[in-house]
Amino acid sequence: MSAADEPLALLGAPLGRITRRPDYLAAAAGRRFHTGRLTAQGRLRDEPGEAGLRFGFTVTKRTGHATERNRIRRRLKAAVALAGAGHAAQPLDVVLIGRREALGAPFALLVDDIRRALAAVTKPRPPGGGRRGPKSES
Length: 138
Hints:
33% of the residues lie in helices and 18% in strands. By secondary structure, it is α/β, with parallel strands linked by helices. Strands 1-4-5-3-2 form a 5-stranded mixed sheet, with helices on both faces. A hairpin with a 3-residue loop joins strand 2 and strand 3.
């Protein structure tokens, strides 16, 4: 277990962490889920040998100063430990982008947001890639 996994392990959740940039970029190419408190980007992993749910956290500088960003990140990590327990076996990468509203939001609302994000991100794409076809002239 690496030092990056310790905060989640202390909370009793067997969840992994995304630490490499290519994994963040791959998650960004997947499905998205938005609320006023966070944005979730995720994808199902295809690589054999890596099982389990992994999370990455991003809070940009325009969100606030360092102590506010760290507090948002800590709140998201704690909410993930509660919300992600039911999906721990899925080969899924999820990146959470924290927003300033996550600072003052009730903790139960953050947990609910993450649960809804996991449901949206794991939904299979419809046949045909989920893209709309060309517009028809009527």
